[in-house]
Amino acid sequence: MNFHRKVLANGLRVLTIPMPSFESATVMVMVGAGSRYETRLNSGISHFLEHMAFKGTEKRPTAMEISSLIDGMGGEFNASTGKEATAFYIKSEASKAELSLDVLSDMLKNSKLDSGEIEKEKGVIIEEINMCEDNPMRDIGDVYERLVYGDTPLGWNIAGEKEIVKKVTREDFISYIKSLYSPHNITVVIAGGIESKKAVELVEKYLGDMKKFDTLRYDEYAELQIKPEIFVKTKKTEQVHIAIGFKTVKNEHPDKYPLEVLAAILGGGMSSRLFHEVREKRGMGYYIGTGSEAYQDAGSLITTAGIDPKRVKEALKIILEEHQKISNLKSQISKSELKKAKEYLKGHMVLGLENSRSVAYYYAVQELLEKKIDNPDKIMKKIDAVTVEQIKNVAKKYFVEKNLNIAIIGNFTSGQEFQNLLKL
């Protein structure tokens, strides 16, 4: 798989990934505009704007016209908002790629942002927040990041706070767009059964007239953790949901791939150490998994699990012990375990890139948030290059008491009864 890159005169970056065997194509627009760019007064506006983009343009005045057009060509459309970027995409037959680009560019440049639609959508956003809070398995990640990153945009919920969402106005959206939606802060990716030269010409046709301007910058996260922390969100649940993590490093750091392999050894798949110890051996809970996650200036290695309420302390103790076994060299990593972890990561990457939408997202994220783009085969080589010694080193470096954070959702009044678990 190879990509072609072109930067237009206005700074907009275009990536094309021809996939000749595909009859579909995904057109994706990704903007460097996420919730970490927000303030306390407009928290949640990045996500809210993602919703409003589909609510009508000057050319296509209603949400029904937009959805009917895309449904009528057999297309799939959606959007997503993260803390560092927002993406909009349409996936369709490759022959409909120009129409997809026409619709997305129209939404990007000419959204009506009708005040009446804004008021109606507030109810939708609030119900989405309620839905997430009613799903602790989903909510635990947000609770953990609030603990780790504190009362900063990086620690806030992407969907925002209900009372702030209720106050958002059309003027707030316009101001936000004017602060971040400059062409040089946008990447357009077209992946699938397309021809690169023609695709670039289409992007130039529909988005080449956008005017470049200086964009808002986010405040870098630089807070140093000096002691372990625990936070309990009190909620009556049948299952206690936990997140145990250690602060690590930003996305572009030499320790990135050793950390990813370490996470796979601990909690990647049904043969991982934690899955075996917590679920298979002791039957403490249904799900458990570990991942290494990073932003442009911060990161964590996190284990999440759903646990029997009567056995939470026991589970936390076992999970932390498994981390320590690697960091204090009490448990050796065998060649077969190392190989299995690497194959797990590479296999999931391959499976995740089986459609044009996921391919578009893969390249868009790298173009927008990283200094260079690596094709999948290069990423796999970096994973293969990880050694046992590197894994031991990162475990020893980051699995230390002061880096530890534990978030819990369950029927507990405080984290006081778990304090003794914070001492490694």
Q: What is the CATH T-level topology of the largest domain? A: Cytochrome Bc1 Complex, Chain A, domain 1
What string, H for helix and E for strand, traces the elements in order?
A: EEEHHEEHHHHHEHEEHHEEHHHHHE
Strand content: 15-25%
The largest sheet is: 6 strands, mixed
Q: Would you tell me the structural class of the helices and strands?
A: alpha+beta
Low-pLDDT ranges: none
Number of strands: 11
Envelope shape: globular
CATH H level, superfamily name of the largest domain: Metalloenzyme, LuxS/M16 peptidase-like
What is the CATH architecture assignment of the largest domain?
Answer: 2-Layer Sandwich
Number of helices: 15
Distance between termini?
45 Å
Order of adjacent strands in the largest pleated sheet: 1-2-6-3-5-4
The number of domains: 2
Q: For this structure, what is the CATH class of the largest domain?
A: Alpha Beta
Rg over C-alpha atoms, rounded to the nearest angstrom: 23 Å
Name the helicity range: 40-55%
Mean pLDDT: 96
Structure in words:
There is one protein chain. The protein has 424 residues and is of the alpha+beta class. It folds into 2 domains: 4-207, Cytochrome Bc1 Complex, Chain A, domain 1 (2-Layer Sandwich), CATH 3.30.830.10; 229-422, 2-Layer Sandwich (Cytochrome Bc1 Complex, Chain A, domain 1). Helix content is 42%, strand content 19%. The protein is built from 15 helices and 11 strands. It has helices at residues 45-52, 63-72, 97-110, 115-133, 136-149, 162-165, 170-180, 196-207, 256-267, 273-280, 312-327, 335-352, 356-369, 376-384, 388-398; strands at 4-7, 13-18, 24-31, 76-81, 86-93, 186-192, 229-234, 240-247, 285-294, 299-307, 404-410. The strands form 2 sheets. Strands 1-2-6-3-5-4 form a 6-stranded mixed sheet, sandwiched between helices. A hairpin with a 4-residue loop joins strand 9 and strand 10. The chain is globular, with a radius of gyration of 23 Å. The two termini are 45 Å apart.
